[in-house]
């Protein structure tokens, strides 16, 4: 109040809004005017405008008689620009720089807050501005001078000889045909800087007529700056309530409202999260955490939340896996989205992730190669699926990240049963889509005993070992007798010394039981290709019985021959993997369980007609030694033997070869012209295991 009394109101001025020049009034901002320039010299001034771009060019006259004007400089500039000849295209017809060009640029993008004001007879008349343009000197005449200079240099270097003229008459012309332009290429071209510059250059100039400050037409146009009607009805914009006027002065920021997080993907505080409905809260939490026990979910939702309502909502966005809730795939991959790695649509991604979740309902461990082989997705997508719900363990696979929630399973059996029915439906769909084999559908033995890992004490482990020894002893003895009788009938000529064969019997006494549960379930019962608890052919002092060596060699040779007839080229690591799979499919007590070393396997490969291909891999390769050893069947007896041998010779010289080199080499060695499809067929047949 004291400040208002010290600053009293001296005068009240009526404000009027003029509309006659609305969207027609521009403000020109000139640079500091040189002393030699006269704005009022109308005879030497012209103007032109490009309306769409709001671009203006003005030519101002320069007073060449002014003492501040340097005449020698003006003559030199005119000579550099126009040369010695003068014609209609000359920039300076008087051979003197007597004018200056100004080009405009927009000073502000939003001019709605600016207006031109005229004060007259105690009234203030405002006219909104349509644009504010800054005029700056244009130096295009310097570009013209440079072009003239280059032309003179080219003329001097070219000479005037008739030979040069004759040579200039004959020129080579290159004809190019443009490719059909795609829609994406057209959009990129339209948005490019060159295209925008070209469009701006194509707009025609509109020449304007300049009227001076004291011209009668200027006086007439200046009257439009005043409001034509002083009635209040025509100036309703100026009649506002205080609140409306304050809103016009300080409008709410629309940009800030749009930038506020509208979805759970943005970072939200817990206070903001709890303002949302319960279903949205659960969806946000599950989408960000992905795997969560029910107790943790209740803790995040705050005290007082109804567990029944939470259970009802969480089943809409998550599935139960090992007693924990895992977010559904369609929540992470909505419809009409795709993979950032491979571009695969969301429907395929959801199917692949559902397969991974279903595998974790069967076992705590999942192998990434198995998932990739079934789903046929790229490794990056499969890795994303596994990282959502599991942790990688070296030399073991991917383990489900949370322990089995036994408390939730016991407290909510109805929910568990309902989720099992859902998983049965999902399993049926996966069987149809992926054609799942029986080995994919059958859970492992340890899962049939317990759905979750148990901590076994030492006493329990001893009792389990005793029971297993008693159970297996009779079976092992019967199996050995059967094998013994079979060996006698098949190898009667060898006559093995049966009394010297010692049977390795499992201990039955209660004092020293064998602990067999330590390695159970880790490697499917195989240790270096041997079943420790089921092998009836126990070596005596490191040697097999007489007829067993030949039988092992025959079985091994049969396996190697059949494998290389299916896949002509294999690395040692891949061959060992296939051999382990073959061992896993054999019944207990088979002769191959006697133990096959890597050297025996490699020698047998060479004995079956295969050759080792010394591929010159780069020294910095990350492959293992077994992956660097490549074996190939040299003669398979089919029509592609010659082609395959040529290919193996090529790859023995270089580990990476272009397709056109392979095609030319095959055509040269085999004496026939092979097209691209035939070369692809040869490569696929020869290297199907490595393709």
UniProtKB/TrEMBL annotation:
One Pfam family matching this protein: RPC5
Disordered: region residues: 146-169
Biological process according to GO: tRNA transcription by RNA polymerase III
Gene Ontology cellular component list: RNA polymerase III complex
DNA-directed RNA polymerase III subunit RPC5 C-terminal domain location: 444-689
Stored InterPro entries: RNA_pol_III_Rpc5, RPC5_C
Comp. bias (Basic and acidic residues): 146-155
The name this protein goes by in its record: RPC5 polymerase
Organism in which the protein naturally occurs: Nesospiza acunhae
Higher taxonomy: Eukaryota, Metazoa, Chordata, Craniata, Vertebrata
Gene from which the chain derives: Polr3e
């Amino acid at each position: 109040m004291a400040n208002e009394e010290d600053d009293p109101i001296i005068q009240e001025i009526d404000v009027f809004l003029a509309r006659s020049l609305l969207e027609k009034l521009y403000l020109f901002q000139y640079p500091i005017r040189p002393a030699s320039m006269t704005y009022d010299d109308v005879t030497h001034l012209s103007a032109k405008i490009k309306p769409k771009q709001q671009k203006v060019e003005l030519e101002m006259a320069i007073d060449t008689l002014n003492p501040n004007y340097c005449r020698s400089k003006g003559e030199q500039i005119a000579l550099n620009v126009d040369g010695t000849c003068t014609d209609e295209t000359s920039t300076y017809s008087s051979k003197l720089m007597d004018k200056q060009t100004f080009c405009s640029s927009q000073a502000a993008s939003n001019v709605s807050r600016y207006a031109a004001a005229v004060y007259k007879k105690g009234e203030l008349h405002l006219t909104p501005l349509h644009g504010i343009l800054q005029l700056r000197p244009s130096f295009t005449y310097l570009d013209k001078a440079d072009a003239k200079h280059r032309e003179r240099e080219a003329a001097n270097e070219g000479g005037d000889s008739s030979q040069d003229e004759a040579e200039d008459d004959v020129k080579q012309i290159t004809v190019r045909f443009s490719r059909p332009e795609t829609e994406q290429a057209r959009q990129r071209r339209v948005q490019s800087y060159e295209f925008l510059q070209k469009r701006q250059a194509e707009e025609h100039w509109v020449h304007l007529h300049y009227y001076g400050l004291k011209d009668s037409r200027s006086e007439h146009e200046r009257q439009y700056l005043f409001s034509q009607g002083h009635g209040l009805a025509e100036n309703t914009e100026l009649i506002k309530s205080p609140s409306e006027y304050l809103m016009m002065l300080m409008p709410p920021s629309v940009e800030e409202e749009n930038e506020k997080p509208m979805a759970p993907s943005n970072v939200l505080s817990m206070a903001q999260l709890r303002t949302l409905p319960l279903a949205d809260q659960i969806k946000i939490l599950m989408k960000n955490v992905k795997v969560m026990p029910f107790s943790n979910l209740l803790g995040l939702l705050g005290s007082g939340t109804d567990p029944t309502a939470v259970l009802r909502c969480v089943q809409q966005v998550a599935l139960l896996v090992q007693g924990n809730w895992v977010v559904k795939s369609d929540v992470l991959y909505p419809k009409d989205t795709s993979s950032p790695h491979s571009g695969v649509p969301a429907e395929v991604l959801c199917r692949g992730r559902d397969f991974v979740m279903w595998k974790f309902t069967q076992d705590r461990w999942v192998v990434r190669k198995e998932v990739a082989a079934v789903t046929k997705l790229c490794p990056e997508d499969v890795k994303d699926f596994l990282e959502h719900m599991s942790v990688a363990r070296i030399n073991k696979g991917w383990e489900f990240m949370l322990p089995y929630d036994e408390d939730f399973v016991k407290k909510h059996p109805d929910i568990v049963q309902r989720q099992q029915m859902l998983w049965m439906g999902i399993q049926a769909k996966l069987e149809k889509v992926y054609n799942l084999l029986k080995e994919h559908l059958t859970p492992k033995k340890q899962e049939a005993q317990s759905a979750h890992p148990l901590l076994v004490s030492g006493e329990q482990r001893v009792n389990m070992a005793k029971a297993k020894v008693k159970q297996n002893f009779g079976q092992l003895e019967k199996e050995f007798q059967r094998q013994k009788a079979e060996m006698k009938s098949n190898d009667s000529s060898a006559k093995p010394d049966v009394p010297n064969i010692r049977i390795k019997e499992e201990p039955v006494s209660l004092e020293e039981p064998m602990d067999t549960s330590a390695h159970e379930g880790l490697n499917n019962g195989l240790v270096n290709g041997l079943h420790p608890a089921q092998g009836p052919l126990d070596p005596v002092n490191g040697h097999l019985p007489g007829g067993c060596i030949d039988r092992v060699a025959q079985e091994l040779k049969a396996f190697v021959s059949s494998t290389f007839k299916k896949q002509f080229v294999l690395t040692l690591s891949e061959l060992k993997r296939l051999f382990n799979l073959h061992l896993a499919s054999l019944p207990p007590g088979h002769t191959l369980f006697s133990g096959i070393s890597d050297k025996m396997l490699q020698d047998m490969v060479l004995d079956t007609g295969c050759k080792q291909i010394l591929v010159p891999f780069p020294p910095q390769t990350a492959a293992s030694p077994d992956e660097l050893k490549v074996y190939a069947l040299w003669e398979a007896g089919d029509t592609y033997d010659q082609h395959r041998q040529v290919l193996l010779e090529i790859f023995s010289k270089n580990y990476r070869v272009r397709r056109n080199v392979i095609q030319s080499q095959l055509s040269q060695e085999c004496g026939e012209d092979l097209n691209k499809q035939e070369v692809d067929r040869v490569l696929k047949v020869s290297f199907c295991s490595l393709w």
